[in-house]
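Practice set, problem 2.
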Amino acid sequence: MGQCIYLTDLDDTLFRSFHKHPQGEALTRVTTATNGHHGHMNPVQQGLLSALRATGVVIPVTARSTDAFSRVHLDFGTRRAILANGAVILNGEGIAEPDWLAHTAHIGRSAEALLRDMSALIDAEFGTAARSWIVEEYGAPVYFCVKMNASAAEDVRIGISAAAELLSSRFDLSGLRQHANGNNLSFTPTEISKRAACRHLLENIRDDSGAPLIGIGDSLTDLPFMGLCDFIMTPSGSQIADLVAQMSNEDLTL
């Protein structure tokens, strides 16, 4: 039987921003962020990654763009990765698969006008209260992202909710997948997804050795790719864990 294959999200799963960690934790910086909100790992997260590497193949599955992923300073033991919400698949040499890029670029360009109109509306209505941008890969748009510039959690929550309501009231978003988690609101063409990219990758690398496939993530939007796996894992306090707690009417943080 082969080793495990781990498909794992990164942000808020294997590491998180400094301010999201409890005060007093021993932290190791593991990313470089252009806005200064660098990612950090605590000892438990470091231990998890070490355990994953010791028992299998670790493949990142992340919303991070190619550029943002290049600023993750971790050794996953492989150069394979799924980036930009599934728009990019890196092969074993760390090179983007050209056929998959062409496929997702065509999808992204079909949605480009809508994404640019959405960005213009956020800029016009929110001004300096928010920032928005279109994530591009190899010259093609792949998804649209909005974040609030407020620091208070309640102000962020209200702002993200207002942005989502504004966009849905002005545009037909039926061809986009909306994701909201903390200070992150994103819209991705439905045909671009982590799940589709994972399925494509697994068709090329998985054999009949019986290697368990394990999906790891924190967000509800990770569940579709995790659903391809034999087992799933999620951090305590994540969106997924909170949903399970609500459904079971149990406090899972005790």
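Problem 2, part (b): a different protein.
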Amino acid sequence: MNRYKDNTNNELLRLLDRYKSLTFPAQIELQKELINRDLIDNLHDLNSSITDKISDIKSMNYLSDIGFEMKDNEESIEITRTRKAIIIDLISIILGFILSFIGLLGFISLIGSFFTENEFNLFSLVMNIFQISLGILGFKILNGFKRFIDYLDFKLTIKNEIVTLEKRFDLKLTTLVQNVSHLSLDKQSDKLVLRLDDYDILGANPKNIIQKMTITELVDKLKTVANNS
């Protein structure tokens, strides 16, 4: 569904004047609607912006958005975890443990308040609930711990039509070797996953058009390099 189908021509032209403030998906939808209405006289800058973005996607400039980087020497490709992604995971682990500990203290304090003879204190109750809420948030943030372990020593290499995946499964560093034809994209409800046979390699958010296009382009690039090497 095009978000601009109900806009007037003048409204679309005003949006075109400030296309730089629009998101990439919004720019694409605006471009389509303008073309559908034959309002194409001043589309050059918008077209160039979209073309440049697509070029960046094809060049894997947005692979880092999902936490990975690629080295391409034309004969082979190597994909590893970015240093930034590793640091973010470490920060989330530390923050998750801190918040979880605060939540545990709040829970213990709340339980203890039912067994004391002190008068009811509304402020203490609110603080305990707040601490417990932080603890729940901390547990959610600790998902970064699993991601950190899963991608510790991660490496994906493609050369001569052979895919070599080094990744931890159930904590154990495993090396899988297969033909590039065994690579596939698995569309799930909340994730688009690059897989080698039944093993997940990396994933992207399918609702994010840049991530979706990046991982789709990545698969094409991996197979192209493999076939040309």
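Answer key, part (b): The helical segments are 9-17, 24-36, 44-58, 83-113, 122-141, 143-150, 209-228. The chain has a mean pLDDT of 89.
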